[in-house]
Design brief:
Layout lengths: L2 H28 L6 H8 L3 H7 L3 H25 L4 H18 L1 H12 L10 H26 L9 H22 L1 H4 L5 H16 L2
Helix pairs in contact: 1-2, 1-4, 4-5, 4-6, 4-7, 5-6, 5-7, 5-8, 5-10, 7-8, 8-10
Length: 212
């Protein structure tokens, strides 16, 4: 690849990221349904036609937001795992990292909730939606590796079943608990418990099912 070709490729990627940046700002401010592609183009300081050159429609642009969120979540999980020597502690760190992500990046957590709720039939290879799904699998790989580490070091029971299935189960538990804390937290706080206690209790509940 020539230097000029490399520069054009870098410029194309930079422009794509700027459009995704703009989409995050507009959708966070107005909501997905109310946000218009024209507004996203205006925020990115490009023409609407150029936005459609990169993304065929708003759902595809939203998938790009989700793919970015999942990449960032994977980075958090990797960092959390790196600080813990035992598999069981790595799993706990992943759960807390997900809760921190939801608290510190509520828009991205909400975007992922919407993404997980949509129908995933007929996903085209190479599409932005496929890229988001691939990024999601990479997130699960971190948890699977932590589970296998725990089985190997004796901190996690050997009969936990398929590690990917367990990873998905743990994700469903944690995601649901976070959503409950966000939308119906008063159920917990009205009984005299803090949301922090509730979230930590859910992690402990999952760990008790895993411990050897």
């Amino acid at each position: 690849m020539s230097l000029s070709q490399q520069r054009r490729l870098e410029e194309k990627e930079r422009r794509r990221e700027e459009i995704v940046d703009a989409a995050e700002r507009v959708i966070e401010a107005k909501g997905y349904d109310a946000a218009k592609m024209e507004e996203i183009a205006r925020d990115a300081r490009v023409s609407r036609a150029l936005v459609y050159t990169y993304f065929k429609d708003k759902p595809e642009l939203y998938f790009a937001i989700c793919e970015r969120a999942l990449r960032l979540l994977r980075e958090r999980f990797d960092a959390a795992v790196a600080s813990q020597p035992r598999g069981i502690d790595q799993v706990a760190a992943i759960g807390r990292a997900y809760m921190d992500f939801a608290r510190e990046s509520p828009f991205r957590f909400t975007a992922l909730s919407r993404f997980e709720a949509h129908s995933m039939a007929d996903v085209q290879a190479g599409s932005t939606e496929h890229g988001a799904l691939t990024a999601g699998r990479c997130v699960h790989e971190v948890t699977v590796r932590a589970l296998l580490n725990g089985v190997a070091d004796g901190s996690i029971r050997k009969d936990l079943g398929h590690p990917l299935l367990m990873s998905i189960t743990l994700w469903g538990l944690t995601h649901g608990v976070i959503q409950l804390a966000q939308t119906k937290g008063s159920i917990v706080t009205d009984e005299g418990f803090s949301l922090a206690q509730f979230l930590e209790h859910s992690i402990d509940f999952g760990l008790r099912a895993l411990r050897a």
